[in-house]
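Hey,
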Amino acid sequence: MKTYVFLMLTYVATTTEGANILITFEAPRRSHQIWISNVVEQLLERKHNVTMAIPFPDTLARIKAKVRESIDEVTAEHENYTSIALEGIITYHKHFDQRQLIHSGLVGSLKTSHRYNYDICDRVYRSKGFQRLWSYPDSFKFDLIIVDVSLGQCLYPLIKKFGGAQVVGFSPSSLNPYLSSVFGSDDQSAYIPSRHLRDVDLRFFFDRLLNYLTNKFEYVFKQNWELKSIENLAEKHLQEEFNFEELQRSVSLLLVNYNPLLNRAQLLPPNIVPVAGLHLKRPEELPSVLAMILNKAFLGVVFVSLGTDIQPEILCHADTKTIANALGRLVQKTVIWKNRTINTDLPENIVVHAWMPQNELLAHANTKLLITTGGLLSIQEAIVHGIPVIGLPITEDHRENMKIITENKLGLQLDVTNLTEDLIYDSVTTVLNNPVFKDNMDTFSLKFKAQLENPVVKAVRWIEYLLRYNDTSFLSPSTRYVSSFSAKSFDVELFIFVVLLFAIFSIARACLSCLKLIYRYRNRTQVKVKSQ
């Protein structure tokens, strides 16, 4: 008992000392901000000194307001909080044509993604926010850097800049084969389908072969081409040499939005920590006007939200009108549509607003259906609140997330390139009127919520573990530090193959020699017999 009390006192003493923590990401995506916000709140409450360098400075005040009592207090920088805006990134994102993501295959998707990442990194290095960080004196130290690793690698130079800091990576997206391989996981092409392939059945050999080649191509492209090109870009802007591959290996821990219930079971090394649902929180009170609308919608509400990261313009005017007309036929249902650019006449049962508190809307008892692109955070919120889903996936990640929905009969998926009024109406009424979807979602919700540990508590516990002991290298498998050729034992298998081939060749040659001897002996015997 005394030992237990001593350990508890030691833990409290070590965690109450404020550490200098840098949290940064370059992705101009609100979902990444939302996903990490609960961790930020907890670190601030535990008196750590947090610096956030992200593209969304306006959101920081709202995060901090939940820690501080007054919104007025958050307008100034406090002793344990600093915000740095990486400006210019959001403007580029708004003008990027996301429609090219709909039809792109493997090569097109990787090329588009690389061009997008490269341009984002170029704007990061030019931003005043990044230059502010880069100009910090050499004597300034961060104890820990928490960096988003799901999009690109342009923030890796900060790992070298603050070389004494431990580094934790995070990914609000599901765990894909590439990211899994980067952190030392074994090749899982035999049972985890690539997000770039559609309708692949890994029970069949040629599908597994295609899946294997696709994953290898993506890995080689990203590690040998994209990583090097952004490294060259950083050297050009910052006038300093970098080894991005080495900096990548210095990210000792990965917090990832993974749950086997949603993302297929797979083998994970101990340096990959699953914290699915990190953004989830208890619903707050709805705004009064919105609460009045939902409370009066006794026959149910259909909520339409295309997520925080997809441009509303990705749907053309005709598609928007088609969706509106189909939902307008649900005269007994109230439709709430989050959209800031819609400019068509709408049926009377549709309410449109630029922003909606999604978590609170889905938690309301009268909400019956979510129509979404299939972003993982929205899917998780729908599951927690037991709301069936209709998906209009845009990207590979969306399509992969929607596979879980359709395979488990939690909702339906539509093709965004082939929308008709009747198809949308029939799909919505099918999900609303067939109790199988709601019953399956309720069961799924119970399984998802029955996690052994709160994901926020788990993430903060690992962060503070790293701060206390300054080392998690023992969690990384040695496969991170050797070539994939050696890590997968291809060299051993090739050696065995060559040995077997040589043995087979030797045995075959010996047998052939024996046959020749036998043939010669028989010929000689026959000649002797004939001569007699």
